[in-house]
Amino acid sequence: MQRGVFVSSNDLEPVRPEGEVLRALADKITAMLAYWDSSLRCRFANRAYERWFGVSPEALIGKHLSELLGPLYALNLPYIQGALRGEPQEFEREIPNPVGGPPRYSLANYIPDIVDGVVRGFYVLVTDVSEIKRAQLALQESEERFRLTIDEAPIGMALVAPGGRFARVNRVLCEIVGYTEEELMGLTFAAITHPEDVGVDRSLAGLLSRGEIPRYQRGKRYIRKDGTIVEVMLSVSLLRGHDGAPRFYVAQIEDITERKRFEKEQRFLSEVGLALANTLDYEETLTRIADLVVQDVADLCIVELVETSEEARRIKVTCRDSSRACLCERLSQPPHDRHHPHLLQSILETRRPVLMQHASVELIASLSRSEEYHRALQEAEIGSLVAVPLVARGRLLGAIAWGASRGSTVYGPADLRLAEELAQRASLSIENARLYRAACRATHARDDALGVVAHDLRNPLNSILMHTHILRSCREDTGGRSQKAVEAIERSAIRMSRLIQDLLDVSCMDAGHLSVEQARVSSQQVVSDAVETQKPLATSASLELRLEVAPNLPDVWADHDRLTQIFENLIGNALKFTKPGGRITVGAVPAEGEVRFWVADTGNGISAEEVPHLFERFWQARKTERRGAGLGLPIVKGIVEAHHGRIWVESTPGQGSTFFFTIPTVHRVAESRRA
Q1: Segment holding 120, helix H or strand E
Q2: Is the pTM of this model over 0.70?
């Protein structure tokens, strides 16, 4: 057997010498393995150098390390020197790819070869960590992008650990809640969440971690470092690890305080407009203004109106807490001397709004007009105050103030703007209520005067009519001028009496007290009676008066005398505006649940421009030719509508006019009552 060659027991296969085995093993590993002596000459290298540097191990033997490394030699020199001092070295290095493409990354280990305390050289083991390095770089890049996404996001963002502690927060979130990044990192989300919202957050986070929901979004409240409340919209998703376990909750936080404030303000102003539009009562207007304020934006509201020639000074005070009614009563007492200091004095004097974000006890005390008022203000515990004047059409009406209890809300410029918006609406409502009250007073005064005048005029008219009847009964002058004079006096007196009655009817219509005593009325009979009554007048005017009534007319539910009044007015108008030789037709036909009546004439007709004004009071088509007071048609319309009927006119100039009106039947009224 040759020296250095070993044969197995069965002599089947030779085994290489130990050096050749180690060499074969060294060539098979992917890492570069080499030995450099103390003069930095290569004494051994494996085949990996050929793959990395394109140099065969045989070609490296005897070469200086600088020849292999080239430009990298200067970078590696500190590690080489450390190895020659007997100090193991480990470092990473980027190596150019010999076949092109992206660079390769290596992990180098320089292991000194020390014999008897002398460094004879060092071993070099260089491992290819390109894939690991690229994965690390990709992870770093991903983490950097994620960091930038969080840090540069225009909304608040945070990473929250499964236990609820903040793991990362951005600048915007710090601004939203008023904490520094370091302070937030030492807190949990529950520490800054409104207590009423914590339970919901934990419940949703549990659903998210168990995979029952993919993410969730909800509005909630945070408590800022200064104690104020901020409204936010929170969106949360879950970041899981490779094992599928929850790693972080990713939270996006948008500050929606201003949006919520705007929505609340618009809702409040809408409610104010609706509430104030539904009343013209003066006292109710004051009450609604104060109640709406304490319902939505304040703990205390004071509305003070200045004195006018007709109104006494009024102060309305309302508290959100109904148990403080006695306090409101004390604050609502008007001052004996209006020039003494009081809460709204400066507003009334300057007409300028006031914002007291932090109303000190001393400041509130300076607004006290008396010891009693001072104690009431102290008891009110006003911590923040907004006050604005009430001005309508350039006229000062008063002032309104609302306050927040000490330690609760702090009012700011937005609240002042809201108060000014409210004041604008309230001022118009108060002014309208005042004008309406003045109008009601004027109407009552007019009605009272009208009643007195009507009463005082009717007495002499009744006397005139009585004496005309006496004169008629005297037969001393049966056909002379005295008889005609008596008739003229009688006609004038009747006309005056009719005008007085028309004025009284109009007054009753304004007050909603037009007397209508309804009962079953024969449609046929009431039309026939009306025609018979007016026939003498038609004949004297050389006019034909016709009756056109459908058979079997149903009875109507109406006031007989008022229906007669309608026909007298409509037929009387037709007589006035129809020339001699013309024709007037009075008719009636059944309709659905009602009877439709009409009075038609062959007069001049009415133009389309005049038709819309026919039922206006005191309006007449020909102003130069007055034939009445202009109250007949408005009264007719009022009587028809009091019967729940309708009235309209159809007219063609040159061909005449037809006035229609409807009255419900007895059967229809009975059905509606049963329903």
Answers
A1: strand 118-128
A2: no
